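Agenda item 2: zinc ion complex prediction
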Amino acid sequence: MSGESKHEFYEQLKITPPRCLAKLSVKVADLPVHFDNSPKSTWRLACGQCGEQAGFLLGHSFQKLDPTYVGRLIFVSPLAFKCSKCHTSAELLDTDLHGYHNELSLLEGDEPCGTKYRGDGEREEYLCSSCQNISFRLIVSFVYWPDAIEEILELFDELCSQAPLKEFFSLFLCYASCTTCDALSEPTDFGKL
Ligand SMILES: [Zn+2]
Ligand SMILES: [Zn+2]
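Presented output:
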């Protein structure tokens, strides 16, 4: 890929959400805190039904899966956003289905298999550590590592024109802004996907 088409590709990525956001209404946003200079797409989430931005983040507390964990409240997937107005839930991210390694498995004809802690069963609502409120506005970001993307392009030369490169994100970031006290927190910490 030439430098120019690479640039074009990353510009396109910024305005093309990966499929895991399909059930939500999304708008291009800025990250609330600087991350790094990797190509990324960043989205403000809203309910796909009514457009409300305030909602609950559903997931599984990492601490419940690993009782030895000590630290801030962190959620693992599957994650969903539940609208605070019309109560519609929409799936947001599943580390067994989404992200770089799952997509690679799919391209290679294998079953996707997540490598992350993942919960199952009933999910809980993420809560603000400052005021215990459960309603947030969420910004999420998908970070693409150029080396990883180039590897895909080389491995799957023929496929790459159709391959959904926007699905090959290596990091997922999530920022939750509390609708009561405005505190900003990071509900997730997935590392390399
Ligand atoms: Zn709604
Ligand atoms: Zn709060």
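Discussion summary: The two ends are 24 Å apart (CA to CA).
Owner for follow-up: CH.
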